[in-house]
Amino acid sequence: MRLPLDLRLALSPLETYRQLIAEPVRGTWLRAFERAALVAVIIGTAVTMSSARRVPLGLVLTGIVCWIFVAVVQWLIGLAVIGQARGRPMSVPRCLELLFLGHLPWSLWTLVMLGLYTFTTLPMGLAPQVISLLIPGVWTTIIMLAFCRTALGCTPARARILTAAHQALTWTAFFAYVFLVSGFWSRILAFVGA
Amino acid sequence: MSGARILAVCGLAAGVALGTLTDTTPARERITVDGYQVLSGDFHVHAFVGDGGIAPWMLQRHAARVGLDVIAITNHNQTLAGRLGRWAAQPSSGPLMLVGEEITGRDFHLIAVGIEQPVNWDQPARDAIADVHAQGGVAIAAHPLHGFAEGYDAIALAELDGLEAAHPDSIASTSAPQFEEFYQRVLMRNPEVAAIGSSDFHTSGPMGLCRTYLLVRERSEAGVVDAIRDGRTVGRCESSRLRGRPELVRLLEPHRDALAPPDETVAQHLAMALVWLSLVALALVGPRS
């Protein structure tokens, strides 16, 4: 049985991206939007279910609308990185579609954490949760490198630079949000003893 | 669309439909003791945009789902979410929505309830408490564990209106002694201090896991704030023992079961399981081949 495309890409990113760019598929904005929309649905529904432990339609839809900014930020970061690859062999929408195709590690991490929160009584300390972020973080870096090498047509050195830029922007956005909403400034001052 | 994809989309739709059909507000008994009406409250609720998962305008309905009569939205160092939640609430029916803030200072976390404007976090705890009182609000020490309670000096401890005696962290055997030790320190200076139960609700619920039972003269914001100020409260986590002044605990003890949070139903669990499985399937198969 053939594995689903998203899973194949996650398990073998370089080879799968090479196959995909060889296909005569014309990228459209609709297809690129579909991929980002799926990410928004997964994140919005997961946060709603984890918070409310209920899934009524109104709550789920509101959750998706509220948390859609996560997908939008990823979209914008993706656009910024794709824009830096001048000699890319494909259109911007096709590149975005292929970029979001590599979202499986983060989607799975979100859903595994949701499953643990919702259906088990395992104690979930902050430290294990933070450490577990390394798994999708490293996995996505590998996928991103393959994306830059193939879909963006970069040299190995340029691919490393763009991957580093993508990850730096993503983590900066993540920490900026945490920083803004959780009174982090005072916690940092407390930590450094200022 | 492949068969697996169709199945996943149908599963998601079915799960949400089931979740919608079973989204009921539990019927609750009105309890009166010693001439006071007993309300259930949660005074430590975070909302979106903030580090909470649910939009403030959806929180009133959610509070009703989990059997609460009053909540305070207390995002870190801001009152915007609280004001949004109150603005969107149905004032005539449903739980009361109070504006609050978790004042996140360098060496203290303090819940302010019944305020309008954000309180400066970059000041000593005693001054933050005075600012809360100046706005007519009440000040509650939040999760008084190491790292969050060092800023309370003797004056601050005496001026506190309440403290979180029942909190999700207070259930853990490792941190329970710290809650108890802080409670005893406050009691020495203020025997009437309100014992508060709060869920510290963010994105991994449930809201109302720990809650406060308030003995109020009237079901209003003023009635709730008065009850906290006068220490007419008892805190509780899930089905654990009631925490608070012994005479109040004795009054509420016969109503333990009636005051307990409503159980989640099998249908609600089934709806969540369907949605979760469908999302996993969708994540694996993607929106198209």
Keywords:
heterodimer; A: 194 residues; mainly alpha; 10 helices; 0% strand; globular; B: 289 residues; alpha/beta; TIM Barrel; 11 strands
Structural summary, described in words:
The complex is a heterodimer of chains A (194) and B (289). Chain A is an all-alpha fold. Chain A has one domain. Helix content of chain A is 79%, strand content 0%. Chain A has helices at residues 5-11, 13-22, 29-52, 57-83, 92-101, 104-119, 126-132, 134-150, 156-181, 184-192. In chain A, helix 3 (29-52) packs across helix 4. The longest helix of chain A is centred in the middle third of the chain and has 27 residues, at 57-83. The N and C termini of chain A lie far apart (60 Å). Chain B starts with a helix and ends with a helix. By secondary structure, chain B is α/β, with parallel strands linked by helices. In chain B, strand 4 and strand 5 form a beta hairpin. In chain B, strands 1, 2, 3, 4, 5, 6, 7, 8, 9, 10 and 11 form an eleven-stranded mixed sheet that branches. Chain B folds into two domains: 1-22 and 265-289; 27-263, TIM Barrel (Alpha-Beta Barrel). Chains A and B meet through helix 1, helix 3, helix 4, helix 6 and helix 10 of A and helix 1, helix 2 and helix 11 of B.
